[in-house]
Amino acid sequence: MMELERSTSTLTSIPTSSTMSDSDVGSYRVSGDQLVDILSSGNRFSSPYVILDCRESGSHPMIRGAQKVRLPSVLYRRLNNGTLSPASICPMLNSSDCQVVIVPDSMSPNSLASKVFNILVQRQFNVAFLADDVDELAHTHPSLCNVTSPEDIVSELKLNLLSVCDGYKTNTSSQIGKEKNQPPSKLFPVQILPYLFLGNDETAKDKSQLEKYGIRYIINVTANLPNYFHDDPRFHYLRIGVDDTCSHNLAQFFPDAIAFIEKARAENASILVHCWAGISRSVTVCLAYLMHATHKTLEEAFDILLKQNGAIAPNFHFMGQLTEFERTLFPNESLFTPDSGMGSSVPSSTTSSESGCSSY
């Protein structure tokens, strides 16, 4: 097995966790040659590799298979104070068995790369920095780079990184959205409120689980998963047909989802909100409901849900939509203190004509 290389020279000064000595600072790195070997390895390495690109988005070349680290303010604050879970940085970091290569934005103590490095080292991950400049690698190793954004690359390639995490073998190169590349969790269903449950596809198709928790109302936040028990008159469904991509405006369906949850509550029934993996689309709907029903800010609602399930990871655009929704709920309150760096802004979203909402 190829291990991350321990270099005899440092790249530059990097802040360290309390478990590392000054001699360890910046001493782990991989070269472009090693990264080429990693990406072309198939499954011959026993531990999966995850590549985190901490650079700002732009026209510069991208490493094939890299996961872009884009954190909205609610997560960036947690990164700053050292409480952000690795799975919130990237859902593929659900186990410290992964070996991580960081493509740094800079090597300054306040850089995003340095903060991510510290979090992962504290959680016992094996972490290294890419030692070579990506622009130079695009010329010396053109097969390593792609001008397409990392999010697009991940959906196109059957990479070792996606096929070995948690033993999950992907055949989803044609599927839309990074959420589909995540393995189902065994933690579901997650009880958020006495009547509100978060789940995934496995939960939605398990009638015994639904009956166990008194779930009779189900919100299916996918365009393609079936409403498994639509023929059973005991179950009532609301489908929100969106994919886990930046092209869908999930916020437009928040009112329908909230009304459906309140209907279940009024009938003393439990309700399940699910998507495929239970980490992005369904989490977004649950966060919107928590803010509305409990008058919590996004950060407070996020904390509630994070304590129940540490693997939640709404995509960057859905977090932007939740931020906008928060502004409509608290129009006269000063809730927003912009952070510097990656967490300072969230993108607006477009509405897809292919998405829709239906209930019965």
Descriptive labels:
disordered N terminus; six-stranded mixed sheet; alpha/beta; Protein-Tyrosine Phosphatase, Chain A; 360 residues; elongated; Oxidized Rhodanese, domain 1
Concise description?
By secondary structure, the chain is an alpha/beta fold. It is 31% helix and 15% strand.
Structure explained in plain terms:
The chain is elongated. Helix 4 links the parallel strand 6 and strand 7. Helix 11 packs across helix 12 and helix 11 packs parallel to helix 13. 44% of the residues are buried. The longest helix is centred in the last third of the chain and has 14 residues. The protein folds into two domains: 162 residues, Rhodanese-like domain (Oxidized Rhodanese, domain 1), CATH 3.40.250.10; 170 residues, Protein-Tyrosine Phosphatase, Chain A (Alpha-Beta Complex), CATH 3.90.190.10. The strands form three sheets. A six-stranded mixed sheet has the order 1-2-7-6-3-5. The N terminus is likely disordered. With 360 residues, it is an alpha/beta fold.
Q: What is the number of strand segments?
A: 14
Please bin the fraction of helical residues.
Answer: 25-40%
The succession of helices and strands, N to C, reads EEHEEEHHEHEHEHHEEHHEEHEHHHE
Under CATH, the topology of the largest domain can be stated as Protein-Tyrosine Phosphatase, Chain A
The rounded Rg comes to: 21 Å
The total tally of domains equals 2
Low-confidence stretches: 1-26, 149-185, 336-354
Main β sheet profile: 6 strands, mixed
DSSP helix count? 13
Q: What is the name of the CATH superfamily of the largest domain?
A: Protein tyrosine phosphatase superfamily
**Structural class of the helix and strand makeup?**
alpha/beta
Give me the side-by-side strand order of the main sheet: 1-2-7-6-3-5
Mean pLDDT: 76
Region (Disordered): 1-26, 339-360
Biased composition (Low complexity): 7-21, 340-360
Family: Belongs to the protein-tyrosine phosphatase family. Non-receptor class dual specificity subfamily.
Enzyme class: hydrolase
